[in-house]
Amino acid sequence: MKKISKKKILHIKSSINGTHSYSTKLGCALVDKLRAQYPDAHVVTKDLVEEDFPHLVGETLVSFFVPKEELTTEQKTLLHVSDKAIEEVMEADILIIDAPMYNFGIPSHLKAWLDQISRAGITFEYGTNGPKGLILNTKAYIAMASGGVYSDGPAQQMDFVAPYLKTILGFLGITDVEVLRAEGTAMAETKEASIEMVLGQIELVN
Ligand SMILES: Cc1cc2nc3c(=O)[nH]c(=O)nc-3n(C[C@H](O)[C@H](O)[C@H](O)COP(=O)(O)O)c2cc1C
Fold this sequence. Notes:
Homodimer. The protein is α/β, with parallel strands linked by helices. Helices cover 39% and strands 20% of the residues.
């Protein structure tokens, strides 16, 4: 059982830009805002780039289906990465994903994390009514940053970050998803205004 008293916040970072990252700046501002709202909140921060979060390999997939008592030492190590990531996301009341746009999509580290937490029978299942997500009662925020502008105008259809994240999170049961965007971070004329605007939006989050 979760969600009885203290809020648990899971903050996922996936930018390669470290302290210069706009998505991380947004994600951290959101964490600060939520901490002010829930002073006793427990925050877990996972920097996928810093910890070089592992991609799935063939043996990881095998380890998902081997009975516990038959796992090799290598399989146990691989399985632990996925199990731990799932435990962290299952426990979270609030999930914040910092999502930079790289080549119109999400960073590969973030994709690796999503691959590790998407497990049949644990975070989703197929029933008579089709797929059912099993990560329940979790609110998600996507703190997105992109060099160009995608929220409006002709480039909108080239944004595969927000639609993809909403789809995969929804598939896993997380349907309450809010997207905050710092856009035009590669353009001097839009950068600062965009950051100020999105930090203003964060102030209004409740
Ligand atoms: C490898 C790479 C690919 C990028 N691809 C795109 C892109 O397809 N579209 C875009 O608008 N900006 C692109 N950018 C710019 C980033 O989206 C922008 O710098 C953003 O602020 C990155 O988020 P961050 O500041 O949190 O790292 C790319 C940047 C990098 C490093």
